[in-house]
Amino acid sequence: MSQPMTHPQPRARLTLLVLILLAAGLLLSPLASPDNLARLPGALWLSASASFEQAVLHYTQLPRLTMALLTGAALGFAGTLVQQVLRNPLAAPTTLGVAAGSQLVLGLVMLLAPALLVWREVWAMVGGMTALILVLLMGARRGFDPLSLTLCGLIVSLYLGAINTVILLFNQEQLAGLFIWGAGELSQNDWRSALELLPRLLAVAGLTLLLWRPLQALDLGAESARSLGLSPGITRVLALTLAVYLTALTVSHVGVVGFIGLAAPAIVRLLGARTLRQRLLASALSGALLCLVADGIAQQLTIAFGYLLFPTGAASALIGGPVLLWVLTRTRLMPARPSESMSVTTPRRKSGIPFAGMAVLGVATLGSLAITLNLGPAWNGWQWTGFSGDPGILAMRLPRMITALLAGGLLAGAGVIVQRLTRNPMASPELLGISTGAALGMVVLVLTLGISSRPLQILAGGLGGTVVLLALLLLSRRNGFSPQRLLLGGIALSALLDAGIRMVLAMGDAQSVTLLNWLSGSTWLSGDTDALVLSIVTPPLLLLTTLSVRWLDLLPLGDSASQSLGLPLAPVRLALLLLAALMTAAATLVVGPLSFVGLMAPHLARMLGYQRALPQLLAAFVIGSLLMLWADWLARSLVYPYELPAGLVATLIGGGYFLVRMMRLPVAR
Amino acid sequence: MFTLDDVSYRLPEKTLLHPIDLTIEHGQIVGLIGHNGSGKSTLLKLLARQLKPSAGKISLEGKDLHRWGDRPLARQIAYLPQQPPATEGLTARELVSFGRYPWHGALGRFSREDREQVDRAMALTDTERFGDRGVDELSGGERQRVWLAMLLAQNARYLLLDEPTSALDVAHQVEVLSLVRKLGKELEMGVVVVLHDINMAASYCDHLVALHSGRLLTEGTPDELMNQDTLKDIYGIPMSILAHPRQQGARIAVV
After folding, report:
1. Is B98's CB within 8 Å of A547's CB?
2. To probe the interface with B, which of A6, A339, A351, A564 has the most B CB atoms within 10 Å?
3. ipTM of the complex model
């Protein structure tokens, strides 16, 4: 992270920031209305003669204010701890999957054994710790390089989020509140949460004080710290545990309030706080105030929108997202070590054409087509339709199958492009924010205009995706569309838009479930139109991609090498990005924003021995199609007569595969 | 022929290369020497058009470097970055054949001539033996030779090498530099190579260009530069010059 060159008065700047935030937060809070201000003195210490309004103030507004401050402080503190341990300006409890893990386990407990919710902090802690361990295990394979770690965190978050969605879909009634809570809701009706949170926070701060010196030595890097006689491993584990505990605390009390753990440390650092102590204190303070401002915004919006609930977590994303983007433009990222291999798969290199792989793929394709077309559960048990069978059933299945096949193929193709373009095997078209943008476009359309026609939806989705793509291009233009910028910008945008979607869903009504279905990648809406559109769009896109294979071959060699071979980097990257975006958008519009097919198919292709761009592309295309086809089949067969969204099934398969795969890799030096 | 006319390179906070005039002839081996941060790599990257000069003009064969098309330029200049990137899953032969991109482009056919050039490049660098092996499996010296082969397959007239020996032991340094010299002479290429070791530079280069703090300090034949005063100016510490015990007329510098 580049430190600004000169900062004569970090203290003055910090004070200024604190004052601005404090003023904004207080002004935004409903407490600041003249009526409430007049009641305030009596409400602080409730006496027997207090009015009803004063009691309301005492039991709702004041604890809410306190909770906002405490939550923000905890998150800011946790953010700095995580960043110090992982030496990574993009690390935060939310980006590392901790919040998602806590949320999932809490949701499960809420559903399966509500009585056990008494120990909700423990459950949140278990979930958060598990998620973090997963992410770190994956990250270790890549030497904890910041970008990869963030990507791993995002993958785990999305994966856990997908499981969460499945649970939600099947238990709408019981878990309706989980929507809102998942978006971070600070409403209080007594002081209990605040009183529980405060001593725990102070205890963590005290423990951190004990760890302070070893933590500071981590600035020197693990080797040097070890040579000073410290054990960096234990220090790291302890500090991370504290950070997870803080996050779990906030999640169990108010749900997921994202971005503050990321934004507060970043702001503090940019303002010139250098030493660990300065950063910890300042980021706790600015985190608290940021959360106060976010909560103020949320409450004002809630009032403005006629008491539709507007969760604080969503508002914090509105503040934190732009901050994250700003940090990205100011940060000079350390590139991954150039000698580092981009390997995720352990390539089994054989000479000549991998005939075995081709045979496997061929058989798999034919078999899959036959089975998914013909076999399916019906009212009287499993049925093999046969080719002479009921044309009605075939007419129902065929468009879906074509849609699934082509969408999967497109995502896989986009995956190959994005992974080669960014030289990062953990990149995936879904993480570029384009799909999330398309999703947001459609969500907004459906919620504003009510139920709408398919063409309108596609238009809105296309528009959303385009806007995101333009934003992404603007963000990375100055660096000649450098891969790191693209990825980070994409991550930031996805996170921001995702928060937007959550927010819209939390505010919405009955339609949110329909939307949630589409958001998790449902193919059951796809009729002949979708199949037709994709059949028209896919061949030219695939052709264009095959024409660019030489670029795709050279790009992994790195910027200098490919440039000195005569590759005009900026235009090539722009062209490839546009191509990948088009492919992603086309697929997203019909199967929803998430599937991991774009992440997984390129890897599987490599594992089968297709290393060069063209074979990898073609194999990935076939594999992606098959994955989606089977996901669709499973989605409609598993819980017959109900249906699961196919994208969700693909996510569960794909994400699971990916996690297992990452665990098995040898650890990087 | 490269001509540098008042070329400089600045970052917002720092000047990496002060205005410099230099001519690099075709057909000789030029060594860039200097202390760490003296601007050697910056100069090489400017020549390779990896960086754009902040001021001044670089021309290649009389034409402004920035008016060359990407692929035409790549047919003139082949550049090896300081740390060759990872090449996961590529065989040596595949890597070498990437060197033909400037000739066949994005869509052109990989012709017989392309194949012959790849064969020739691999023969010259003696890398045919591991054509089918993964580049990542090779030893440091072998890998460096494969990269050289890729540069040769490019069939360029200039080779720009940024510390090609920095990661190699002495035996491999000698192996790579003799190869570079042999190729430069046989194929009449212009070679510009950044080297840390003054003795290696003196024994393998025809001409040395010494930089200090981003300025051109001096240039000349190894003979002209190998004396105590010049070396002290270049590296900032006193060095002694001895006669090479076995090579007639050669001199070596010791600290």
Report:
1. no
2. A564
3. 0.79
